[in-house]
Design brief:
16-stranded antiparallel barrel; single chain; globular; 6% helix
Length: 330
């Protein structure tokens, strides 16, 4: 066990001993404070048609959150891909003990309608990206739309207006004009990001969101513009998500289109079935265009624990794969 991993575990155990009580999956409340401390971990395994296999410690994180009057905060520090073992078509083993910042922000509730957020947070684009960790998601794999179209994390400021008593529509603006607080978890390294979002609630079950944004990529030093539409419908026994987006640079569409449609069914309280169809096209760099089908199953005997397995069928058949994962919150 690396020193940094040891530090994370020791920190959690020390806090646990100091707490009045601990309920599995709910975190620890530090006595006489509004501060909670918990964590989460994910292990996953991938077996691909081209004989590539990978076992990975995907997430191992300590998080803390709390609120007091108008202020609240979230701090999420962890090890990403701390251990990877590959075999088959590629044999290798790597470890990484770098502790990174996944989320670190403060919220201030100005009044009943306006909330200001400052720090590093999930970009509020679409619906999939608003589920921050694996255990809350329907599948271990991420739809291409959620990492091809926009930066998944923003280090900056968000101002959100929401007043359900007078309006069924919410508005938010995101501004980043600085380097990422920590770009380890981000799919695109950026130092500028602007986003405008409108979300409308048609009913308790149906909602939609429209996003338009701009960012400057420090990977290739180019300006990019994107648009994304999302739809969510939730019923007691099933959920439907759909997102469609596009991204372009100054001269052309780098991602002309990317979309997915996903349905999940609650077979029982513990068992879910998930299906998803995806399609995307990349015109920038190495050209790529394909359709991907996903069939998945989730077992959740208790809320802080999930086992997932999915089969992914790709247009590029050598990438067909089975993926499994185990996630736990503590």
């Amino acid at each position: 066990v690396t020193m940094r991993l040891f530090f994370l575990i020791l920190l959690f155990l020390n806090i646990n001993l100091a707490a009045d009580e601990y309920n599995f999956g709910e975190g620890i409340n530090i006595p006489h404070t509004p501060i909670y401390v918990g964590g989460y971990a994910t292990l996953d395994y991938v077996s691909r048609a081209d004989n590539y296999n990978r076992f990975r410690v995907d997430e191992l994180s300590i998080l803390s959150y709390g609120s007091n009057d108008r202020f609240s905060y979230m701090a999420d520090f962890g090890l990403r891909d701390s251990y990877i073992k590959e075999w088959g078509s590629d044999d290798s083993s790597t470890t990484d003990s770098t502790i990174s910042i996944e989320r670190l922000y403060i919220d201030y509730q100005v009044n009943d309608s306006i909330r200001v957020r400052a720090g590093k947070f999930n970009t509020p684009a679409g619906y999939w990206n608003m589920e921050p960790i694996n255990i809350f998601r329907e599948t271990s794999s991420i739809p291409y739309t959620a990492f091809l179209v926009f930066p998944r994390f923003t280090s900056g400021l968000e101002v959100k207006y929401a007043n359900s008593l007078y309006s069924d529509t919410e508005y938010s603006v995101v501004i980043q004009h600085n380097e990422d607080l920590d770009d380890t978890y981000n799919n695109i390294a950026i130092d500028k990001h602007y986003l405008a979002s409108i979300e409308h609630f048609f009913s308790d079950s149906l909602k939609s969101k429209a996003n338009i944004g701009y960012f400057f990529s420090t990977i290739d030093n180019r300006d990019y513009y994107y648009a994304l539409l999302a739809l969510s419908y939730e019923a007691p026994k099933y959920k439907i998500f759909a997102e469609a987006g596009s991204r372009r640079n100054e001269t052309e569409f780098s991602v002309p289109y990317s979309f997915y449609l996903q349905g999940s069914w609650h077979l029982t309280q513990e068992h879910d079935l998930v299906t998803r169809i995806e399609a995307y096209k990349i015109d920038e760099g190495a050209f790529r265009e394909e359709v991907v089908g996903v069939l998945g199953y989730t077992y959740r005997p208790v809320s802080p624990f999930t086992f997932k397995i999915e089969y992914r069928d790709h247009s590029y058949q050598n990438e067909n794969q089975i993926r499994t994962s185990v996630s736990v919150m503590f």
